[in-house]
């Protein structure tokens, strides 16, 4: 039996659903029931009726699914896959910020630990950060941990944002020089980038989107695209919108953590029901409030 058939059989036996982020390896995306961005995956984790969710992404994504679904079994096939940006802030840092800016609500990018979410008022993803910030009652916001997403959101709000100085090491490798070179090499193509990119890269782009936003944009533009985000998304772009060409903005934009899943880790996860993600209840309930508020505002 092929490993793909093994996964299909185990999935049926376990009544499981496989969710995968757009940056996963192509073969993992191909066996998933749903592939999407952080927001779409959170929604899917809530809406799906499966008893078991196998979450192929990095740790904060499986954690979010577990926070939102205490009655479902959430499995992370690669629990060692973390997000370095999420590790750039702690719950103690958030408490310190709340003392420093007592009038400001805390907006927490989902790329964060459950403990950090528990200290926050509302979560956001790259697809709804602007909407979430603008939904706050006050005129000040604390935004953690991504300084680049905060900088992007600041352009579309009159609220004053106090940003934590975290960043994504993968998107950090995409430079303004890369944009200049790519535009010269592919003069007819448009540059679309993720808001985790450096501000100067965002300023030079023709469009700024979450990963699902890029998939949607590719469906409607007739032009070839230069892609300023993690390279895994090109698999889905080529599969769903094969009519145009895609050029990675930088060959270095690879997130090693996102590549830790494989057909083997997914099969073993279903075979041995590992690694189950359980969040301590006192943290889970507080973190869930911040995620629920995002799901309410962000849709
Ligand atoms: P998206 O929500 O746009 O998929 O982004 C998640 C992420 O980790 C980007 O680096
Ligand atoms: Fe984290 Fe960046 Fe990897 Fe996304 S691409 S999971 S933000 S390190």
UniProtKB/TrEMBL annotation:
NCBIfam families to which the protein is assigned, alphabetical: nadA (TIGR00550), PRK09375.1-2 (NF006878)
Organism encoding this protein: Methanocella conradii (strain DSM 24694 / JCM 17849 / CGMCC 1.5162 / HZ254)
Swiss-Prot/TrEMBL catalytic activity: iminosuccinate + dihydroxyacetone phosphate = quinolinate + phosphate + 2 H2O + H(+)
E.C. number(s) listed in UniProt: 2.5.1.72
Record keywords, A-Z: 4Fe-4S, Cytoplasm, Iron, Iron-sulfur, Metal-binding, Pyridine nucleotide biosynthesis, Transferase
Primary role: Catalyzes the condensation of iminoaspartate with dihydroxyacetone phosphate to form quinolinate.
Protein name (record): Quinolinate synthase
Cofactor: [4Fe-4S] cluster
GO biological process: one example: 'de novo' NAD+ biosynthetic process from L-aspartate
């Amino acid at each position: 039996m092929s490993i793909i058939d093994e996964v299909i059989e185990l999935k049926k036996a376990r009544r499981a659903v496989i969710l995968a982020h757009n940056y996963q390896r192509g073969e993992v995306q191909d066996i998933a029931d749903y592939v999407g961005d952080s927001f779409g995956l959170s929604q899917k984790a809530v809406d799906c009726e499966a008893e078991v969710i196998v979450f192929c992404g990095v740790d904060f994504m499986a954690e979010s699914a577990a926070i939102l679904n205490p009655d479902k079994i959430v499995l992370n096939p690669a629990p060692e896959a973390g997000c370095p940006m999420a590790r750039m802030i702690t719950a103690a840092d958030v408490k310190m910020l709340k003392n420093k800016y007592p009038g400001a609500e805390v907006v927490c990018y989902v790329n964060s630990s459950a403990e950090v979410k528990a200290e926050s008022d509302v979560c956001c993803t790259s697809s709804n950060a602007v909407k979430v910030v603008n939904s706050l009652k006050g005129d000040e916001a604390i935004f953690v941990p991504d300084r680049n997403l905060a900088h992007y959101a600041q352009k579309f709000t009159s609220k004053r944002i106090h940003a934590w100085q975290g960043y994504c090491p993968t998107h950090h490798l995409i430079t303004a020089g890369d944009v200049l070179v790519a535009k010269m090499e592919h003069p007819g193509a448009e540059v679309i980038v993720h808001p985790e990119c450096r501000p100067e890269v965002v300023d030079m782009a023709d469009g700024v989107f979450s990963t699902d936003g890029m998939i949607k944009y590719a469906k409607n533009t007739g032009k070839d695209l230069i892609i300023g985000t993690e390279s895994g998304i090109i698999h889905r772009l080529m599969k769903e919108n094969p009519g145009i060409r895609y050029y990675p903005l930088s060959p270095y934009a690879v997130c090693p953590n996102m590549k830790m899943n494989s057909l083997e880790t997914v099969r073993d996860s279903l075979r041995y029901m590992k690694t189950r993600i359980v969040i301590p209840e006192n943290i889970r309930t507080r973190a869930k409030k911040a995620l629920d508020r995002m799901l309410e505002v962000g849709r």
